[in-house]
Amino acid sequence: MQIEKYKIDELNHQASSKHERAFEYVAADVKDLESVLAKLEAFNVAIPSWALGTGGTRFGRFSGGGEPRSLEEKIEDVGAIQALNKSSNSISLHIPWDIPSNADAIKAAAAHHGLRFDAVNSNTFQDQKDQQHSFKYGSLHHVDKAVRKQAVEHNIEVIKYGVELGSNALSVWLADGSNFPGQLNFRGAFQNTLESLQEIYEALPDDWKVWVEYKPYEPNFYSTTIGDWGQSLLLANKLGPKASTLVDLGHHLPNTNIEQIVSLLLMEGKLAGFHFNDSKYGDDDLTVGSINPYQLFLIFNELVEGMDARGMTHATDIGWMIDASHNLKDPIEDLLQSVEAIKIAYAQALLVDTAALKAAQAANDAVQAQEILQAAYRTDVRSLVAEARLRAGGAINPLAAYRSLDVRGNLIKERGAKTVATGL
Amino acid sequence: MQIEKYKIDELNHQASSKHERAFEYVAADVKDLESVLAKLEAFNVAIPSWALGTGGTRFGRFSGGGEPRSLEEKIEDVGAIQALNKSSNSISLHIPWDIPSNADAIKAAAAHHGLRFDAVNSNTFQDQKDQQHSFKYGSLHHVDKAVRKQAVEHNIEVIKYGVELGSNALSVWLADGSNFPGQLNFRGAFQNTLESLQEIYEALPDDWKVWVEYKPYEPNFYSTTIGDWGQSLLLANKLGPKASTLVDLGHHLPNTNIEQIVSLLLMEGKLAGFHFNDSKYGDDDLTVGSINPYQLFLIFNELVEGMDARGMTHATDIGWMIDASHNLKDPIEDLLQSVEAIKIAYAQALLVDTAALKAAQAANDAVQAQEILQAAYRTDVRSLVAEARLRAGGAINPLAAYRSLDVRGNLIKERGAKTVATGL
Amino acid sequence: MQIEKYKIDELNHQASSKHERAFEYVAADVKDLESVLAKLEAFNVAIPSWALGTGGTRFGRFSGGGEPRSLEEKIEDVGAIQALNKSSNSISLHIPWDIPSNADAIKAAAAHHGLRFDAVNSNTFQDQKDQQHSFKYGSLHHVDKAVRKQAVEHNIEVIKYGVELGSNALSVWLADGSNFPGQLNFRGAFQNTLESLQEIYEALPDDWKVWVEYKPYEPNFYSTTIGDWGQSLLLANKLGPKASTLVDLGHHLPNTNIEQIVSLLLMEGKLAGFHFNDSKYGDDDLTVGSINPYQLFLIFNELVEGMDARGMTHATDIGWMIDASHNLKDPIEDLLQSVEAIKIAYAQALLVDTAALKAAQAANDAVQAQEILQAAYRTDVRSLVAEARLRAGGAINPLAAYRSLDVRGNLIKERGAKTVATGL
Amino acid sequence: MQIEKYKIDELNHQASSKHERAFEYVAADVKDLESVLAKLEAFNVAIPSWALGTGGTRFGRFSGGGEPRSLEEKIEDVGAIQALNKSSNSISLHIPWDIPSNADAIKAAAAHHGLRFDAVNSNTFQDQKDQQHSFKYGSLHHVDKAVRKQAVEHNIEVIKYGVELGSNALSVWLADGSNFPGQLNFRGAFQNTLESLQEIYEALPDDWKVWVEYKPYEPNFYSTTIGDWGQSLLLANKLGPKASTLVDLGHHLPNTNIEQIVSLLLMEGKLAGFHFNDSKYGDDDLTVGSINPYQLFLIFNELVEGMDARGMTHATDIGWMIDASHNLKDPIEDLLQSVEAIKIAYAQALLVDTAALKAAQAANDAVQAQEILQAAYRTDVRSLVAEARLRAGGAINPLAAYRSLDVRGNLIKERGAKTVATGL
Fold it and tell me: Where is the Xylose isomerase-like TIM barrel domain (chains A, B, C, D) (predicted)?
C-alpha cells in the first residue's frame, strides 16, 4: 500500500489550528528560526530492513500482523514512514536477510518512495543454510584461517550488493567473543580481527567507509573481541582513514557516559555514526527516547557542538540509523516514535544558547551551565519538529495519521495476519 | 540576612509579561487548572540542615563562602529559599550536627521565616567526641549489646529534640554493614537491628513515625544490613504501623526500577517518603533532575496515581526531603534547582491524562501509553510552577532572583569567605 | 546408550593412585571426615529437561550433535550424568516442552537410571501452537481475566503431570513485565499476579510446594512483575506456608549481594531453593562456577550455616537445580562441570571452622574472619568430592571419563549429528 | 620498632613440619619447580606511603592505634611488612602527604630496611594550605591556564623529589571531571589535559616513565576527563614512548572485563602497571582478593602469558602497587593479606599448563580450556608461596607472625593509641 498525499493533507488541515498556535508560541523565542527549521527538515534517519518485523528475545517471539514478506514490502513500509514523517529517506540493508535479487528493480522501487540505500550490514553471527564453516566460535577473529576467510568473503560480497544499490558504507558488527575464561587468547583474537578487517578494507571502493561497531557482551557473555570504543578506535586507527567507530547506544556497560565518548570520537575524526535505541539494562533495543530522553539530548548536544567545531554538515558526514527490536509494539509505530524522539532531541540541542554555555563553562559555573542546557531541553519543541515536517510535505502528527488511516489494518488485509519478516 | 518581599515583587514585575505569555499558552490546555495550581502551591519539600554547606568526597572538600556557622544561620538560609520559592517551608534537623540549644528560640526563629520542623535524623555513622563506644563496626546491628544500647539511646534522644521542635517523625539511616565476607553473620545483624529498632519504636510518641532508610553500599562495601527495600519493608512490617520505608533515590543498584518500588510500597501502605537527589553511578547526591529527569517524572507519576488510589493528600501523608551533596555548586542555588526540578516533575505528572492511560493499559497499547506519558512530560510546565509560586508570594524565577539580589555576596559579607558548615 | 559400570571402574582403577595420594593429603586435616564425605555423597542437584540440548541467544543457536530427540532420550542423558557423578539423581521437567505421554513408562525409564522427578516447571513465556489467548503481554499478571485463567489452568495442568511422576513442587517463573513506562499499572499487575497465584496455590496437593522465582529484567526490559526477592517474598507471605522464594543466581542486578539474600530467606523460612548458573553481565546462564567461584562458595557458606541453625538436612528441604544455557559447550560436559563446581563449593563450605568464625565475628575481627573463610576456600577439595563420588559408585573424574568413553560420539551415532532438543 | 630475624626464625621452626608436608605434596606435581619458586621469590609489590594509616569514607574515619606519624615511621612499617613477607621491597611516595625533608636520610632509612622507592605520586585532587589556585574545578584539564600551570609545576616538583630518592616513574591520577552535564566541554578538557601532560612529559628525566591512570567516576560524578583505558591510551599514544596506562582494579564500570584490557595494553606495549585492590561495587579499595579472587587469577594469567610473549621479566618492566583503603582492618594486616593474595594468584597463573591451553584454544574447546585454568586455580599453592618466602628469609605465615609478635601492640606503645597518619 502507499499513503496518498491528499489523505495526509486532510489530516494536517484538521490539526492545523492547534499546530499553528503551538508553533507560533515557541517560534517567537527561537533565534535563527529558519536555520533551525532547515536543519530539522534536512535531517534523516535510516531505517534498517530488519526493523520492519516484530522482534523477539531468546524466550520467544510474538509476531504481529501484516509484516513484510519480502524486501519489496519492506521498502513499502519505509515508504509509508517516509511519507508520514519526511525524515526517513533511506533504508539500511542487512545481508543475507535481504539480498536484492535484482538491484535495478529494487533501486527503482525505493526511488518510487523517495528512498535511497544507506550503509549495508553484514551478518556473521548466524550460520546460513549450507555455509561451509560455522560461525559458532566467531568469524573475523576465528582461530581457523578458513573460517576467517569465509567471513571476509561474506563482507566483500555485502559491499558488492551495496555498490549495486548506491550505498557507500559497510557496517560491521561482530558477535565474536567468548563465553568462558580461557576460551580465547585475547591478543590472538584481536590480531585475527585486525587482519580480517584489513582484507575487507582493501576491498572497499574509493568512496566507501567501513564502520566498526563495538559491544561489551551478548551474544557472548565473558568477552567480546570488539568490546568497547577503545578497542574499536584502536582497530579503526590501524586500518586507516576509511575506518571509523559506530556507536550503538545500547552497547555500553551500566552508567557509561556515552556523550563523552561521542565527543572524543568526533574530536578524533573517527565517529562513524549511530545505531539509535534506548535501554534500561543492556542492549534492550527499546524505542529511542522511551527510557532516558535527557541522555539522548545530551548526546545531540555534543553532536551539534562537535560538528559545528569541525565544520561538518549533518546529513552527509555521519550515519544515523535506528537499531531496535520491536517485541511488543507495531514496528512502524515504534519507528515513528523513535524518529520523532531523535528529532525532538536534535531540535532541543539546536536551541542551546552556545555562547552563554561557553561563558558558563569558562567561569566553572555549573549551575548556569545546567540552566542553559535544561532551558533548551524543557522547551516544548514538538511544534518545531512538526513545522519542519509539514514544510517537507509530511504529517503534522505522523503516528496519529498512521492510526487514523489504519495503515496496519490495510497491511494485514494485503499481507495476512500471520506473516513473519526476516530478522531477529 | 532576610530577602525583602518588595525586592522579589520588583523582579517579578520585570518578568511578568514574559511569564504571562508562557502561562497563558500552557494553561489553556490544562484541565482542572485551578486544582493543578492549588496542588503545586501546597507542595513543599523539606530542606535538611546539613545541605546548606558545601559537601565533599573522601578525596577532599572545597568549601565555598558565606556558609552558615550555626543552626540559626541555617534557618536563615532555608528562610531565604522559602522566600524565593515558597515550596520549602520546613527544615529537617540532623543530630548531633545541629542540636538546638534552646528549642523555643529555634522554633521562634523558624516561625519568623514561616518554617516548621520536619523529620529529625539520627547519626550513628560517625563517632562523636567523647562517646563511650565506637560505631566503627556498626550501631543498631552491633554484636555488642552495649554499643547497640548507646545507639538506641542516641535515637531516643533525637526523638526528644524532635518533640521539642514540633517534629513528628524520626528518620533512621544506618551505615551498619560489613566490608568483607565473613565479617558479619547476616541473620545476627538483622536480628540485632530489629531488636534495636523495636526499642526505638517503643519510645515513639503516639503521633510519631519512624522511617527506615535502605542503601545497598557505602560506607560499607560488601554488605549493608538494611540493604534494599525488601529488607526495610521486612523490618517495617515486623515493627508495626508507625514504621515505614524511606526511599532515597540514590540508594539503589545500577538500573533499579525505582518507580516500581515506590508503587508497591504505596500499595502496602509503607511508603514513608523520599530523600531526593540524582545520580549516574551510585549515591552521587547530585542536584535533583540533573541527570535523569524522566525517571523523576515517572516516580511522580506513580505517586500521583498511587496516592489518588489511596485517597491520600500530598502535603501531609508522605515525607519529602532533599538529600544531596553540593560539592561544586552554591548550596542554596543547588537547592533551588532541586526543588524546581521536583515541582516540574510533579506538575508534569499532574498533567497525565489518567483516563486515557488506563484505557491504553487495558488495551495493552504500549505505544499509546508512552504517547500519553510523554505528552505530559514534553509539555513545558515551567510557567505553571512559576504561576503557583507567584500566587504564593514567591519569585517567578527564584534562581535568577537569588543571583540578581546577590544573596551569596551578602552572606559572605556577613559571615566571611571561609566558613564551613557542619555536615559531610 | 547406557554407561556400563565396569568401564567406569576401569577408569577409576587407572586414576586411583593419584587420587589416593591427593585424598590422603587433604583428608588428614579434615575434622569429621566421615560426616563431610557422607554429606557430599548425599548431595544431589537436579538436571532440568531443557538443559540437555544446545541453548542459544536471540542472535542465533548453533546446535551440537546427538541431542536428545525425546523425553526418553533426555532421561538417558541424565542417566549418563548420574552414572558418572552420582550427584544428579533427579530430573526437573519443563511443560509443555517435555510432556510425559505415559507417566508410568516415563517413571520406569527414570527409575532404571536411578532417577526421580524434581520440581515441575510451567511455561507461560511462549505461545504454544493453538493456544486460545496469547501471552505476548503476560500471563498471571495480564489485564485480561481470560488470559490469566488460561495461565492458571496451565499451571494446574503442570501440577497434574507432576503428581503422576511423583514430583512435589511447582516452580513458577514469569516473564510478565513491561517494556515501556506507562505500559503497566504496577499495582494492578502485582494484584493480578497474586490472585492468579492464589488460584494455583489452592490447587496444590497437600504435600506440594510452589516456588516463586524472581528476575529483574529479560525478556521484558523496563519492569518485571516479580522483579526481586522482596516482591517474591511479599507474594510468598501473602500466599501461605506452601509458597517460598526461588533464587536463580543469574537473576540479579549488577553487584547484588546474593549470599545476604539467601541468608535472610533462610531466616524467614522462605528459601525454596536454587537455580544454579554463573554470569558476568546478567542472566548469562553460564556454567556454574566458571566466572565467580568465590561467590558460589560464599552462598554455600550461608547455606551450611543457616541450615544448621534451622536444623535442616540438605537433601530434602531445599531445591537444587542447574539452570543454564549451553550455547558453546557440549551440554552434558557443561552439566558435569556445573555439578562439580557446586560440590566443590559445598565441600569448601563444610570445611569452614565455624567456631573460630563465630569468635572472630564476635570480636569484629574482619582480618581473621577472612582468613578462616579463605583457608577453607583455598583448600584443594577436589579429592574429597571425588572420594565421596567413588564411594557412591561414580567416576573419580567424571568429565575425563565422559570423554574417554566417547559418550558424545556414541550419542551422535545413535541419534544423528543434526538433532535439536526442545528448549531455548 | 624492627622485627628481629631470630624471632621470625623461631616461628618458622614451629611451623616447619606442617609447611613441609604441604609443600612436598604440592611441589611434586609442579613442572619447573625451581623456576616457579625463583619467580615467586623475585616478585615484589610496592607499598604506598598512604596505606599505612586507617582510611575512611566521606561519612567518617575511625582511626586505629599506633599509626605512623612521619615518613620515617611509614618506612618502619613497610620494613616490618618486608621483614615478614619479603615481597614488599619498595615504597611509593605520595606528595605532598610525604615530602622527604632530607632525601639522603630517607634513602638511608629505607635502605636500612632493604627498601627502595617506587613510583612517586602527585596530588592535584585536594587543595593544600596556601596554594594559589584551587583545584576545585580540576587541575591539568582546567579551563584556566594559570591553574593548569600550577598543577604542571606540582607534578614537576614531584619528579624532582623522586629523582632524589632514586625513583624512576611518575604516577598521575587526576580527579578532573565534572558533576553535571554542561559543566565541561569534553574536547576542551581533553586537549587541556594533553597539553598539560606534554609539559610534564618534557620534564621527565631520560630513564623515567609517566603512568596515566584512568577512573570512570568519583570524586566527580558525571564525567571524568581520563575516564577509561581508551582515553588513557589515547593520551599515552599522543605523549610518546615514556607514557603508558596504569590499571587500578577498582576503576572500572560494573562487569568490565579487566583481564582483556590488561591483555590488549600489554599487546600495545602500553601497560604501565597496577594499583591492586578489590571491590564489589565501585572504587571500594578493599583488600586484594577479598571479593573476587578468580578475577585476580585471570588477570595474572594474562600477565604471565602476555609478558612471556613479549619476553618481559616481571620485576622490572611493570609497576606493581597496592592501592587500598583500610577502613576497618589494621593497615599492616590488610597489606599482608593483599600481598599474599597477589602472590597466590601469581603462583596459580604460573601453574597453568600453557601448551595444553593453547591446544584447547586452537580447538575451540571451551570445556577443556576452563578445566586447565581451574586446575591451576584450584591447586592449593599457599605452601609454594610460603616456601619462596622462606627461602628469601621471610616468615612462613606472615600474618600469624605479625600477631604472634604483637607488632601492633608494640607500635601503639611507641606511638600512642590516637595517632592519625596522613592520607585519605
Answer: 100-285
| 3-class state of residue B85 by DSSP | helix
- H or E stretch at B172: strand B169-172
- The answer to whether D373 and D357 have CB atoms below 8 angstroms apart is yes
B94 Ramachandran zone, left/alpha/beta (phi>0; psi -120 to 50): beta
**According to the 3-state scheme, what is the secondary structure of C76-105?**
HHHHHHHHHHCCCCEEECECCCCCCCCHHH
Which of D58, D248, D286, D292 is the mutation pick for testing B, counting most B CBs within 10 A? D58
Q: What is the mean pLDDT of residues C15-41?
A: 97
Listed by start position, the domains of chain B span: 5-415
Which CATH code for domain B5-415? 3.20.20.150
CA D219/CA B76 separation, integer angstroms: 30
Helix (H, G, I), strand (E, B) or coil at A11: helix
Is the Cβ of B366 closer than 8 Å to some Cβ of chain A?
Answer: yes
Overall average pLDDT of the D175-192 stretch:
98
Contact A219, C59 (CB under 8 A): yes
Q: Subunits with at least 3 CB pairs below 8 A relative to chain C?
A: A, B, D
What subunits touch chain B, counting only 3 or more CB pairs under 8 A?
A: A, C, D
Interface contact B279, partner D, CB < 8 A: yes
Measured between CB atoms, which of A134, A222, A282 is closest to C282? A282
Residues on chain C touching B263 (C-beta within 8 angstroms) = 186-187
Of C227, C257, C369, the CB nearest to B223: C257
Tell me what pLDDT residue A417 has.
Answer: 87
DSSP run (H or E) holding B75:
helix B71-85
The C-alpha atoms of residue D155 and residue C293 are separated, in whole angstroms, by 42
Calpha distance B113→B107 (Å, rounded): 10
Give alpha helix (H) positions in B363-406. Answer: 366-378, 382-391, 398-404
**A214 touching D (Cβ < 8 Å):** no
Give me the mean pLDDT over the D287-311 stretch: 94
Compute how many other C-beta atoms are within 10 angstroms of the C-beta atom of residue A17.
Answer: 9
Note the pTM of the prediction, 2 decimals. 0.98
Confidence of residue B424 (pLDDT cuts 50, 70, 90): low
Cα separation, B208 vs C192, in Å, equals 34
B61 CA: distance to closest CA in chain A (Å):
17
Average pLDDT estimate for C116-135: 95
Please tell me the distance from the alpha carbon of residue C334 to that of residue D371, in angstroms, as a whole number: 11
CB B129 within 8 A of CB B84: no
Interface of B with A in 4-43 (CB under 8 A): 21, 25
Q: Are the Cβ atoms of D57 and B59 closer than 8 angstroms?
A: no
* CB–CB contact A287 B370 (8 Å): yes
Question: Which residues from A are below 8 Å from C326, CB to CB?
Answer: none
Residue B203 is predicted with a pLDDT of: 98
How far apart, in whole angstroms, are the C-alpha atoms of residue B61 and residue B148?
31
Q: Does B295 touch chain A (CB under 8 A)?
A: yes
For residue B3, which of B419, B415, B406 has the smallest C-alpha distance?
A: B406
Report pLDDT digits (tens) over B324-379.
999 999 999 999 999 999 999 999 999 999 999 999 999 999 999 999 999 999 99
